[in-house]
């Protein structure tokens, strides 16, 4: 009798629009199920981690299958709702399942093979073979290191681009390539001290006491161990203590413990642990600050509306205390034994919120974002995978892919923020919308919070699809800040401005500092100066890889591209005319911070932008110093606009509103209004009202007047009417199609061909093609096509349609050499 073989369809972490089938060896059948992590060979030699999407009793008809190499875990690492969410993201955002997998799993859970090089065994160079100096260097290193990566060889030899040399050596039969699986995850290891006797074995305990009776230090070590392990505590079940903790508690050396181990009292072992294992802290009653009458009424309304609506929008003005309402709702969910996902748009927000929520919820809070190391993210993922305990997970957008077991509530704070949208690489998902779908798959509720909701979200609330609760007053009676529009044309004409600061803003900042309060200066442009130009011939430094000018960063004396990262030194003389007349113009956050320090020499000035927050602790340090009033003026980009709560900020300056206005994008007005209103909301959150100064050369722009009056409703109605007239969301759905090619002409040809083909079926729903604002990035020329479709259209049918169109054009050289991808609901 022949046993029938089973086959697994797996998702590979590659941009491939289908699953692949592998046979399951008999000895692995009992270990494998949907969601399991497996190691498979893909292609001739490469090995990847894949996730099992389905198990079948029959093989594919059109290709020969390979066997699964290994099952990596005894239980699945992707839960059923997660797998359904992956499917939805791939379908809705028009991308490959493997791209979703790559984004969803921490790198530590995706080991894959890497190419290494070794000498061919028993290789002898034929007489007359001439080896280059590089080849001889490679042979020497391989004789020492046996098997090395190309990058290892390049580092050892101090040279770059060794690939041509390696290719030549392969053709000569000198070296060969191998694939080895590289495990990225490194568990945290600690040394554990373990008692050799069982709890309750009093005879063994007395023997241990007798054994150490002649050494006071050993007696102290044993007593400290009994105390730390809770040996005498009823219900305690541990007989282990971390070595470092015991050494500190007993004030002894490692030699003392070794001596006790030699006597058979302790075992000392190395052990892998999860970095985020619960310590059991704060698992008693959750004590929260009381809500104000307005907050209590809002909470009651939310609970009532959740009985009939799955998604509710909480629109509360800045400083109205939305976080306190969130906390009370989270407590209710935890008491029901369920989990909460609390999303914030910026990692900087998790820093301040972590401290507040930790005081309320203690060890029930977990934090997850991309600034954590791969090992830390893997440990959090495994922690959630192994528990059903009620927890709050605070994180940025990638937290939507965590393996929740009992999700009861999803909170999306500052739901309007474009930071929730992933741009590159795919999947280009919006975490707000994905979180709403995630909640529905778990039968959970979603709460969207914002002072300035996105047009689409507020429209859904007005139309009754979402519930709506509004908070129109600030907490404790604080007043919204006064907003003053400063016309910089008049300031310059009357010579009132002091460098980048208007007279109004400078005087207000002087007064604020004199009263012991703080100020925030906002400029949504980092670096020192965005414009570098020769004042003789007009030369400007351009990026070699992108169609943009380089930005000057004074602290490193470098010119940098903010798109691809290319950098070069600022030349001392103009490379075009050789004159020493290169000037820098305009203001980035670095220059503003320097300028403000010069104008307020007694003030302590700090800067918060991408350049100063490259590690996960930098956010916390800057925010904590400002909260402690160790910083007087904080200069920053959009990071300072998002939900941060500082009670002593009385003055806010928006240095140049013009950089936010007039972008060629249907969302530009919405982004400008939201950002300015949110920045303004940092002022006067406690006590007397603060003042916001918006400096602009377009004082007549109507968006600024809506900000001045804090008139969200008026702005919404005007913007909605404009969108209705022009056929933009929420009345349509927008999909941007992007084409990239290293050849400009081929890119243009491919875009015209694709747009014309789409137009044959979709007519005037197609706009373009056109070159985006930056038409070349990383040596790739870009064209874009906009598709406007009805909001009720099926995304699965659209994906199928676009795939058919692509396949019909695939033989065209311009299409074949172009990369084509889709951005659904661009932010």
Task: Characterize the main sheet.
Answer: 7 strands, parallel
Beta-strand fraction estimate = 15-25%
* Anisotropy-based shape: globular
Mean pLDDT over the residues: 88
Class by alpha and beta content: alpha/beta
Count of helical regions: 25
How is the largest sheet built, in terms of strand order? Answer: 13-14-12-15-16-11-17
The count of β-strands is 33
- Gyration radius, to the nearest Å? 31 Å
**Which percent bin holds the helix content?**
25-40%
Termini separation (Å)?
60 Å
Low-confidence stretches: 278-282
Account of the 3D structure:
The structure is a single chain. The protein has 25 helices and 33 strands. With 827 residues, it is of the alpha/beta class. It has a 7-stranded parallel beta sheet with strand order 13-14-12-15-16-11-17, sandwiched between helices. A 6-stranded parallel beta sheet has the order 18-28-27-19-26-25, with helices on both faces. α14 links the parallel β15 and β16. α1 (80-92) crosses α2.
Outline the secondary-structure elements.
Layout: E1 6-11, E2 20-24, E3 37-42, E4 46-56, E5 70-71, H1 80-92, H2 97-104, E6 112-119, H3 133-145, H4 150-157, H5 163-171, E7 175-182, E8 188-195, H6 202-211, H7 216-228, E9 240-242, H8 243-250, H9 254-262, E10 266-273, H10 293-305, E11 311-316, H11 322-335, E12 339-343, H12 347-361, E13 365-368, H13 374-385, E14 392-395, E15 407-413, H14 431-442, E16 445-450, H15 455-462, E17 467-471, E18 482-487, H16 488-493, H17 503-514, E19 518-522, E20 531-534, E21 551-553, E22 558-560, E23 567-569, E24 582-585, H18 589-599, E25 605-608, H19 616-627, E26 633-636, E27 649-654, H20 668-680, E28 691-696, H21 702-708, H22 712-726, E29 733-741, H23 744-762, E30 766-770, E31 776-777, E32 780-789, H24 795-809, H25 813-816, E33 819-824
Parallel strand pairs: 11-16, 11-17, 12-14, 12-15, 13-14, 15-16, 18-28, 19-26, 19-27, 25-26, 27-28
Antiparallel strand pairs: 1-2, 1-4, 3-4, 3-5, 6-7, 8-9, 8-10, 20-24, 21-22, 22-23, 29-32, 29-33, 30-32, 31-32
Helix pairs in contact: 1-2, 1-14, 7-8, 10-11, 12-19, 20-21
